[in-house]
TrEMBL record:
Gene3D superfamilies: 3.40.50.2300, Homeodomain-like. Pfam families: HTH_18, Response_reg. Residues 5-123 form the Response regulatory domain. GO terms for molecular function: DNA-binding transcription factor activity; sequence-specific DNA binding. The keyword Lipoprotein does not apply. Keywords: DNA-binding, Phosphoprotein, Transcription, Transcription regulation. It comes from Paenibacillus agaridevorans. This is DNA-binding response regulator. SUPFAM superfamilies: CheY-like (SSF52172), Homeodomain-like (SSF46689).
Length: 541
């Protein structure tokens, strides 16, 4: 075992050198963690090392030894075992040392006459250190057990309130007993979920979860305790709910940042959090609170949750089924964006933004969003099924999707695993840097009247060479690729905006409206107007 930590505070260098030697001679038992020449330096070293034993002179320039001990005692916590060294046999000093609970009072001359006296005295004090540490450990264990039981009691009371309407009054009374009015006065609810992708444990392991619940409740209690009356409840799956009534609302502006930062700093885990305001208390809003805290995906479309208003947005609680037509449409769009991401880095981000915006507006079911991305990934991996590592990659992706709590996490995870998939597939398609830049230009400026000859000349390629390299890079001829790009954009605008069809044709670069109609019908079997009408009737908008 490591030795007992000892701090030596002595202003006279010769004396300090002698006492240092006496302590270090028992290196099997003691570890000298620091030396100081006055009380101020000694106090700093004490806070840094937390020694179990302190050997100190009394009279020193600046802060004296007794003043240092008073500062240590006023800081709270367990006092170290203290050995006072002095040249004085003055009862007044001894009396002050006793009042500060010094364990021994030694005359320096006695220590010099008996070189083993100091080490012997320290060794006798180690028994008290051991006994004190064991007592403190038992006390901490008991305190943790009591607080763990409190967490379980609060959790059971809260869950009973969620299940049984009759238990609501009892739960509200428990709030009022700690100073949170149930009616007529403003209160707040904070919900926090640990980011499952950053967890250092499995939420399926009850004992591990209990430990982290205990730690999370402690962090929230410390933060909310500074605001006013509060109650923290630890729920399953790494979710926490806190009800609180702050004495001032000014502190709420930074509370979410403090919560997220504290969980990151002390628990080393990311988290999602949001606050809801209940202007007149919770008694008349219990149904709303229950629906909110029970929601499967309260953060799904909230990448940056913030302080909420009194009313809860319905799409945050209940979600709707995605029409099959939309699943097919977005599946095709997202798949195409992923396939072209090696050419146009902005393609995937653009489609993410469009898909997320519409999914959030409609309140689409998160589990269906996950299923859509899984289907896209499986479709893209169909030619890699026999590749070594493919089964493990698919299993890892499925597990990651299960952990995702937000739309952006689902999308980002899919993109990340698609990149791993590409490495497995070993894409041998040769990329031409100049062609890649042309492709990016097409995506970003569809309205321009692109001409093959002009584009080839802009990069000093002949038309035949440009055409050859373009098809080798994209898999399509220049005209096919440009028309495909424009038609996919047209479908999106028809389904998501009220713009006239001829305006859409102009926006995506068709100078001839009849040509746009003809190509659109050849691709979809419908005119642009019929395509939009079918989408509206099918619940696309």
């Amino acid at each position: 075992m490591s030795g007992y930590k000892v701090l030596l505070v002595e202003d006279e260098i010769p004396a300090r050198t002698v006492f240092r030697g006496m302590i270090e001679e028992r290196g099997d038992l003691f570890e000298l963690v620091g030396e100081a020449e006055d009380g101020a330096d000694g106090l700093e070293l004490y806070h840094r090392h937390k020694p179990q034993l302190v050997v100190t002179d009394i009279t020193m320039p600046g802060m004296s030894g007794l003043e240092m001990l008073r500062a240590i005692e006023s800081g709270g916590g367990t006092m170290p075992q203290v050995v006072i060294l002095t040249c004085h046999q003055d009862f007044q000093f001894a009396q002050q040392a006793i009042q500060l609970r010094a364990a021994a009072y030694l005359i320096k001359d006695d220590c010099l006459n008996d070189p083993e006296l100091l080490a012997r005295t320290l060794e006798e004090l180690t028994e008290q250190v051991v006994g004190r540490d064991e007592t403190r450990e038992k006390q901490l264990e008991l305190e943790q057990k009591v607080r763990s039981n409190e967490i379980v009691i609060e959790q059971n009371l809260f869950l009973e309130m969620l299940r049984n309407p009759a238990a609501g009054d009892e739960w509200l009374q428990s709030l009022e007993r700690i100073g949170i009015p149930a009616r007529g006065s403003q209160s707040f609810a904070l919900m926090l979920e640990l980011d499952r992708s950053s967890l250092r444990f499995s939420i399926e392991q009850p004992q591990e979860l209990k430990l982290w619940q205990f730690a999370g409740v402690n962090v929230l209690n410390e933060l909310l305790g500074a605001l006013g009356p509060h109650k923290v409840i630890a729920l399953d799956k790494g979710r926490f709910v806190a009800i609180f009534a702050p004495t001032s609302e000014s502190s709420l502006e930074t509370l979410l940042d403090q919560v997220v930062d504290s969980f990151s700093k002390y628990l080393k885990m990311d988290s999602l959090s949001i606050i809801r305001r209940f202007p007149s208390g919770l008694r008349d809003r219990m149904g709303e609170l229950k629906a909110w805290v029970s929601a499967a995906y309260p953060f799904f479309y909230d990448s940056l949750p913030a302080l909420g208003s009194g009313s809860l947005a319905p799409e945050r609680i209940a979600y709707v089924h995605i029409p099959e037509q939309y699943i097919r449409f977005w599946g095709k769009v997202l798949k195409g964006a992923l396939l072209e991401s090696h050419l146009v880095s902005s393609a995937v981000e653009h489609e993410r933004s469009s898909f997320r915006k519409q999914a959030m507006e409609h309140g689409w079911e998160p589990e269906q969003i996950k299923s859509l991305y899984l289907r896209i990934f499986l479709d893209l991996s169909q030619f890699t099924n026999e590749a070594e590592g493919m089964a493990d990659l698919e299993a890892a992706f499925r597990k990651r999707l299960e952990q995702c709590q937000t739309f952006d996490a689902v999308h980002d995870s899919t993109v990340a695993f698609f990149r791993k998939l590409k490495l497995l597939q070993g894409d041998n398609r040769k990329l031409d840097a100049w062609i890649a830049k042309i492709v990016q230009r097409l995506h970003e400026n569809l309205h321009e009247p692109f001409k093959l000859e002009e584009l080839a000349a802009s990069i000093n390629y002949s038309v035949p060479y440009f055409s050859s390299m373009f098809k080798k890079t994209t898999g399509d001829s220049f005209v096919q690729y440009l028309n495909k790009l424009r038609l996919e954009k047209a479908k999106l605008l028809l389904l998501t905006t009220d713009r006239k069809t001829f305006e859409i044709a102009e926006e995506i670069g068709f100078e001839n409206y009849r040509s746009f109609n003809r190509l659109f019908k050849r691709d979809t079997g419908l005119t642009p107007s019929d395509y939009r009408k079918q989408g509206v009737e099918g619940g696309w908008r």
